Amino acid sequence: MQRNFVGVLIFLSISVTFLVITSVINFDFFHMVTDLSVIFLGMIIFIIAFYSSEYTKGSNLLFVGVAYLFISLIDLMHMVNSGDFNSLEIDLNISAQLWIAARFVEGSILYLAYSMYKKASLVNFKLMLASFGITTLIIFAVVSLSDYLPLLYNVETGFTLYKQVLDGLVIGLFILAFIAINKNESRRFNKKVLLAAIAFKVLGEFVFIFESTDNHIFVTIRYISKYISYVLLFLVFARDLLQRPYENIFRAFKEKEDELTELSRKDSLTGLYNHSTSYEIMREIIKKNEINKVDTCLLMIDIDDFKCINDKYGHTKGDEILFEIANIFKNCEGPIKLAGRYGGDEFVVLFDNCNVERAKKITERIFTKMEILSDKVSVKVTLSIGISEWKSGFTAKDLVNSADYQMYESKSIGKNTYSVK
After folding, report:
1. For 168-183, how does the pLDDT look when each residue is reduced to its tens digit (9 = 90+)?
2. What was the pLDDT predicted at 228?
3. How far is CA 268 from CA 261, 262, 272, 322, 383, in A?
4. Which residues are registered as beta bridge partners of 299?
5. Rounded CA gap, 33 and 45, in Å?
6. CA dist 156 → 116, 185, 192 (Å)
7. In this structure, are residues 361 and 341 in contact, taking their beta carbons and an 8 Å threshold?
8. Residue 281 CA neighbour count, 13 Å, CB half
9. Are 213 and 92 in contact (CB under 8 A)?
10. What was the pLDDT predicted at 246?
11. To which H or E segment does residue 370 belong?
């Protein structure tokens, strides 16, 4: 995106240079080109928002995008009354009224969109079209009655004080929008670009306060400021509503891939790590232990007489017992690093920063929880557990073999107990 932004800066530099040169060579042509450019950009902003409505749901960008359709229509009427078409009579009073109206709507919309973010994002699309459409018709109706309104432009004296006061109000709205965006826009790139756009809008309106019809420099600055602000707004819409949907699609694929990868590492019934992943995690921990020399203990656990439970109570009850036992291991007290289903009714639980004495205490708590589980499933379920402490030079296989041997020792001495080495 930084590369794209550099491209936009280059485009702005070239286009602004072209407009400045054009204003010197043929001011009327400059006036028309700039007006057409901002109207075109306003329409494009609306089109992007409209055709990206699936992605703008719950976003204030749709609210802003729809508004710019009607702002562009007001700007078009302003252009018609500004003398950009030589065949039409120029009315600078109406032209100024339409300019002020468009900027007033623009400042209000940007302020509302970011000061009332949640409410603006929830407005229904058809309601937005109707509301902005009615507002635009009211503006056209009021301007058509300009003879009954205070003059913004007087043929003898130029722009009036009333017009300057309205300019001040518009600047105030843009400043409020600037504050709202700075406070509420969380996306860093959008915030910077939007604040820059608002700054250019304020510059244009500030220049308009002191503008006179015979001073083309001020008019040029005002129009170029407006043009730059529209390009920056377009950049925000293009980035969020054209580029971001594709980013969202790729992100969704990546999240799904990560989810499937994680599922492939776990046992579907118990949610514990499967056999191969358990070994993988043990190897990683042992590799670190060779450097850090941390006490590590492995519990190899077998459900006593689980085949008999399945035969007597059925596999559904057996699955329930496996699931409940897995939850005990998942929520084991102590510095657990791994809980895995090693085989059908065998489990491994690995503790880091845990010596043999601590492992014994954890194991005793597991037996206490098994008594509670037996009452819960209405079946007497016991475990045989082997405890093995990692020693320097032990591989994951060595640690498992040692714990497995101790687990069979537990079975040989009567089951429902643990053995340790």
Report:
1. 999 999 999 999 999 9
2. 94
3. 13, 11, 8, 11, 22
4. 349, 387
5. 18
6. 44, 46, 43
7. no
8. 23
9. yes
10. 61
11. helix 356-377
CB 411 within 8 A of CB 304: yes
Distance CA 168, CA 202 (A): 10
Long-range contacts of 156-161 (CB under 8 A, 24+ apart): 158/212, 158/213, 159/96, 159/211, 159/212, 159/213
Mean pLDDT for 90-112 is: 87
Please state whether 154 falls in left (phi above 0), alpha (psi between -120 and 50) or beta: beta
Q: What are the tokens at 232?
A: 């920056």
Q: Alpha helix (H) ranges present in 88-187?
A: 92-115, 117-122, 125-144, 161-184
Per the CB < 8 A criterion, the answer to whether 64 and 109 are in contact is: yes
Lowest mean pLDDT among 8-17, 242-251, 311-320: 242-251
Residue 65 structure tokens: 């995008």
Strand partners, 303: 383
64/341 Cα distance (integer angstroms): 54
User: Over 50: is that where the pLDDT of 66 sits?
Assistant: yes
Q: What pairs with residue 383 in β-bridges?
A: 303
One-letter amino acid for residue 286 of the chain: I
Listed in sequence order, the residues at least 6 apart from 137 whose beta carbon sits closer than 8 Å to its beta carbon are none
**What is the residue type of 57?**
K
In single-letter form, the type of residue at position 365 comes to R
